[in-house]
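Below: protein 1.
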Amino acid sequence: KTRNEETGGLKEQLAQLMTASTATRDEARKLTEALRGNTGRRGRWGEQTCRNVLEAAGMAGRFDFEEQNSSANDEGRHQRPDFIVRLPGGGMFVIDAKVPLAFDDSADQGDEESRAHARSIRIAASLKTHMRQLASKAYQDQFKPSPDFVALFVPGDAFLSAALDHEPELMTQAMASRVVIVTPTTLFALCKAVAYGWRAEEQAKNAEDVAKLGKELYKRLSVMGGHAASVGKALDAAVSRYNQFVGSLESQVMVSARRFEDLQVDHEGKDIPELAPVEQTPRTLSRPELTESARLSLPDAV
């Protein structure tokens, strides 16, 4: 019975896998049909895919990257790259996401292997053509400071893999033209590193602000310590004056006043209270950051 249940469960999982595979194949076919022969639609698809990768990598729109930012080159001609990724420290690099791929395979003949080979040839040719066009625009010379390359975004690792099957030297040729071909996987890794750089720069700035705040707080504590020391000295002086007053009162005034009692002068039951001297003294500040010397060593203490 257990074996039958396991067999039934395996059959069910295989059926689900076949259904998912069929659905994926159908979606891929629909996507190919939708993109076939429509350059504008391919461009929008590539831009959306690239945008999704940038956002998934932690890049924030209008801050870490910009879209469709127009700028004039040295000849006065305006160019508008698809994306400009901002780098920590003020740098940037350009991404082109126009999907230069040929999807139309209606004229291909032969078996699946032959058709796949023909697709590889078409994709490689499309990438090489677009690579030359992109190199001629020299975005990296227009948007500065910038690394000496422009990124050509291919919206699927499978497309680049197919092109490399036919043109193994494609990546080397691209780099020689100052073009780096990136896929969702490699662009995600690159932008993750950029996003990490942004976070590190922000943390460094926060640390600098904390240091400034700590210095200011220390200076103000020193000023307060000076004020507290002045109050302590004033209290000590007041206690000293009070004790002098009590001593003078007891030795000079109270002696004469008590003679009224000896003379039986009616004082209506009211006695003159004895005044005790204050024995305690104010506690002095001992922490170095609160002492007068520390306060005076800081500039602009107020």
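Below: protein 2.
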Amino acid sequence: MTMDPTIHSVRAGRSVRPGAVAKSRGGARRTASLIAGGAALAMLMLAGCGGAPTAPQAPTASPPIGTAPAPPSAGSTAEESSPDARALQPPTSQREIEVKRATESPALVTGVRFAGHPGFDRVVIDLRHAVPGYSVRWVDEFVQDGSGKIIKTRGKAYLQVALSPANAHTETGDSTWTGGPVYPTGLTNVLNVVRIGDFEAVVGVGLALNRRAGFRVFSQSSPDRLVIDVAH
């Protein structure tokens, strides 16, 4: 009996016909072609779905928060509604200030506050209605408006603030700024705040200082107030 020649597979340990080997090789070629074609098609589909990746955008800088217009330099008749970061620095000018302003009705002084800051002391005159005109000048002593009496207070330099038109009393005559007339502060340079007077639509406020130093003045609103900073 005649038998077909065989090819022995060493690894499998079995015989394989030559025709079967040819068929197997042909099937492998077709499988490889299908895989290559599928990969190319997938790449084309990915390219069609989107372009090149975009570079990340740099974050935009946010504007600083809380900044405000600059205050006037001491000695100027102009003023701003509120200070900026420069108002946190000690003032240097000792020039006197005068601001004239017309208002519909006199401002009402309701009290005076004070506090220490790094390099300067701050005095705040609280008001009802708009901030009126004012002047700030150096004096030798505090003289009470109306009576002309000298108000004695501890200090080596004296800064006097006058607001006009302004009152420190109601229409019935009740005082809206009580106490005093001398208010000790416990601060570094502003030793005492003095209620000088409330006479003929002029309210006088005195600052008794430990030494003569630079100062600045500016107004603020909501609520209305006049701010005086005095360097240490």
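The first helix runs from residue 18 to 49.
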